[in-house]
Amino acid sequence: MATSGARNIRMWPLLVMTTLFGENVQAQLFCVFDPMGTQGQVFAIARDYQFIAKTWGVDIELKAYTDERVAAEDFKAGQCDGVAITGLRARQFNQFTGTIDAVGAIPDYTAMRKVIEVLSSPKLAPYMVNGAYEVAGVVPLGAAYPFVNDRRINTLAKAAGKKIVVMDWDKTQAMLVQQIGAQPVASDITNFASKFNNGQVDIIIAPILVYEALELYRGLGSKGGIARFPVAQLTGQLLIRHERFPPGFGQRVRDYIRGQVPRAFGMIRNEEKQVKSSYWMNIPLEDREGYVLMMREARLMLVREGFYDRRMLNILKRVRCSQNPADDDCVVAVE
Q: Rounded to two decimals, what is the model's pTM?
């Protein structure tokens, strides 16, 4: 009897965990894309998440991927219970959140912060779920800036005929590049930087977070520059197979990630400060209005083509217009 009683006492924590979180208490595998592998900043954030999840009674095992395509395919095949990938790649699992990275839809970090706050609301929880998949969090990766190997390429007209990297799995990028008369060069996350650094392409669009890690200063050389004009706000997205987790786990993670946003923006701003000031270049003011209009027309085309989610575009417009209600964009009822 004493042995049986001792065994029951030892089993009590497991019984509590089973009651609270269901029968599956084994470690869940999260596949984390980070170009720098286990040494990268994304993986470091994932380690913090691993710790906090354990306090909720969920054990997380992390696996680093330097190839985002493989991480996404392993998640799709059910080999990962969760995955951390870019919003562009996450669009295949949830078009609603995959539209956050839409071209020109979020003008600055203030608006991006507001968007993440809105998305963490329980009212939007149903939009986070698409079949077996749930978006358990969205984190900012920073503005996507045009990197050019020649500072004289400071207008769209001068970009005509130039070679611009596009991700080979994202048709929207090739469509946009062709619209401005430039030449899309299909690449992937493993080689786009080397093509720029080796002079095979003239322009790439990238966040400053990868500037040092991928040595993009080599491609900039002495003549290149970074246009201080965000083409999009890039995100990292955490997706889970929600049936493998306790009920409400996704919302709990979204609440946690919302609290980590200041840290993420601090990291982004610190990285941007590391870039030599001589590399930054401004787009002529007289051209900006035309670019904004062009990007709006591109979003409308891509929603018609089925790439973007109109509901998300409406949310992003409301956020933009809450900041600048006088903008032309805010008096045109087309988005």
A: 0.86
